[in-house]
Design a protein that fits this description.
By secondary structure, the chain is an alpha+beta fold. The chain folds into two domains: 66 residues, no CATH class; 200 residues, Cathepsin B, Chain A, CATH 3.90.70.10. 23% of the residues lie in helices and 14% in strands. The protein is built from eleven helices and twelve strands. Strands 5, 9, 11 and 12 form a four-stranded antiparallel beta sheet that branches. Strands 1-2 form a two-stranded antiparallel sheet. Strands 3-10 form a two-stranded antiparallel ribbon. A hairpin with a 5-residue loop joins strand 6 and strand 7. Helix 7 packs across helix 8 and helix 7 crosses helix 9. The protein starts with 24 loop residues before the first helix and ends with a strand.
């Protein structure tokens, strides 16, 4: 049965909707947790524009990204305030493209007072790929070899509402958990054709993936995928990020049991008391994709975003826009700045870059969990 989405500008607001300043504080709290891309996917509109609308999947309703949504009975999308009124940015397809290796830099206030070593220690968080991971056989997408790849592709445009934006890991060095949970959530939504669209909880991984667990002190994506397959994760709404992710009381707050057929069921309620669904989401065994750019794009176009491990140099902490490539000093880097670390990211699409061959024209776009 196809889902029905109610335009809230044409019906009375019911118990499932948001009323500013009313008793529905619990609903408002739940809504604040959702980090999906709504206005961020297609931009913002001034005045009243009833066509500036998208589906708010979590509440099976419609939400708006025009200024009119700010009225008393708000029907704004969850990211309206942060994106339309604070970030002042527009979707990727309206931004200028940059030649390969050309990018702009910026100083970030959240890094104020931090050394380069602090950046490596607190803002990344993935161990280098293990020999086991590197020895996995590479899988290829089943798209026909002659399939033409587009000049531009973004997963959120092909699967609106089924992919998830990045969460802020702050100073928790756990990109191993953030990127794994995000990629898994996207793929579960895509493979289920929108039946399961919940964002998965990185905090569940950070607190509960116990064997060789380093939590916010780096970790392995191998172990993260093992845990997701064998134990599973609850949604981010059920198990949200702790305010202090390095706190001593961040012991695992979820427990589950197997039904004997491989499927697990939670035996504890959600740590977030406002969320009632403690459904456990599991995935099939992970597989390795070729590092060839064309194969990566075929995989993303057919099955959704993929996870990657990248080397991070010191200049990456200044990256703002463009196509990143490490820039070395004219006299060579000093020993202090030749250090690098690894970081797990989610790759989501394709950007055009100048070049003569198709492979040279492609640059992978993605999210950096920061």
């Amino acid at each position: 049965m196809e889902k029905q989405y109610l335009p809230r500008r044409e019906v009375d607001l019911g118990a499932g909707f948001i009323r500013n300043g009313t008793i529905l504080e619990g609903t408002r709290f739940k809504r604040a947790i959702f980090k999906g891309q709504y206005c961020r996917s297609f931009g913002c509109c001034e005045d009243r524009d009833d066509g500036c609308v998208t589906q708010f999947y979590e509440l099976k309703a419609l939400c708006y990204c025009d200024k009119f949504c700010e009225r008393e009975n708000s029907d704004c999308c969850p990211d309206y305030q942060s994106f339309c009124r604070e970030e002042k940015e527009w979707p990727p397809h309206t931004k200028p493209w940059y030649p390969e290796g050309r990018w702009t830099a910026q100083n970030y206030s959240q890094f104020w007072g931090m050394t380069l070593e602090d950046g490596y220690k607190y803002r990344l968080g993935t161990l280098p790929p293990s020999p086991t991971l590197l020895s996995m056989n590479e899988m290829k997408a089943s798209l026909p070899a002659e399939t033409d790849l587009p000049e531009f592709f973004v997963a959120s445009y092909k699967w609106p509402g089924w992919t998830h934006g990045p969460l802020d890991q702050k100073n928790c060095a756990a990109s191993w958990a953030f990127s794994t949970a995000s990629v898994a959530a996207d793929r579960i939504a895509i493979q289920s054709k929108g039946r399961y669209t919940a964002n998965l909880s990185p905090q569940n991984l950070i607190s509960c993936c116990a064997k060789n667990r380093h939590g916010c002190n780096s970790g392995s994506i191998d172990r993260a995928w093992w845990y997701l397959r064998k134990r599973g994760l609850v949604s981010h709404a059920c198990y949200p990020l702790f305010k202090d992710q390095n706190a001593a009381n961040s012991a695992c707050a979820m427990a589950s049991r197997s039904d004997g057929r491989g499927k697990r069921h939670a035996i504890k309620p959600c740590p977030n008391n406002f969320e009632k669904s403690n459904r456990i989401y599991q995935c099939s065994p992970p597989y390795r994709v070729s590092s060839n750019v064309t194969e990566i794009m075929r995989e993303i176009m057919q099955n959704g975003p993929v996870q990657a491990i990248m080397k991070v140099h010191e200049d990456f902490f200044h990256y703002k826009t463009g196509i990143y490539r490490h820039v070395t000093g004219t006299n060579g880097d000093s020993e202090k700045y030749r250090k690098l670390r690894t970081h797990a990211i989610k790759l989501t699409g394709l950007l055009p870059t100048p070049g003569e061959s198709h492979g040279e024209r492609m640059a992978i776009s993605g999210f950096f969990e920061e």
